[in-house]
């Protein structure tokens, strides 16, 4: 009997929804883990949106006193990146980010491969 997995949240971008669904399909996750996974996915989408805005508008703007200031998206990008990484670390998953190509496994200084969830 095939176990039916829940659908990814509809508000996520298509590539992020596909990533969410692939993680849920690959790992056995409890409800609280799925909430953390959703938080990670939302953070990824927010990070992507901030990067797109920065690419379009640049890193800084000039305020009314002609002083250069960092755009708010700089902080949004940084904070969402940190949230994404922390959520994945909390889940203990060693998975690729949405839309990223597979990467080689992490190699420990001892020469052994890191197992998912190992610290």
Describe this structure in words.
The chain starts with 13 loop residues before the first helix and ends in a 28-residue tail after the last helix. Mean pLDDT is 84; it is low at 103-108 and 110-116. It has a domain at 29-91. It has a two-stranded antiparallel ribbon. The protein has 119 residues and is mostly helical. The protein is elongated. The chain is built from three helices and two strands; from the N terminus they run H-H-E-E-H.
What is the percent of helical residues?
40-55%
Main β-sheet, in a few words?
2 strands, antiparallel
Q: Span between N and C termini? A: 34 Å
Q: Numbering strands along the chain, what is their spatial order in the largest sheet?
A: 1-2
- Number of helical regions: 3
- Give the ordered list of helices and strands: HHEEH
> Low-confidence runs (pLDDT<50, min 5 residues)?
103-108, 110-116
Quantity of strands, as a count: 2
Secondary-structure-based class equals mainly alpha
**What percent strand?**
5-15%
Radius of gyration equals: 18 Å
Cα shape: elongated
Oligomer: single chain
Mean pLDDT equals 84
Concise account of the structure shown:
By secondary structure, the protein is mostly helical. The protein has a domain at 29-91.
Topology, element by element:
Blueprint: H1 14-26, H2 31-57, E1 60-62, E2 68-70, H3 72-91
Antiparallel strand pairs: 1-2
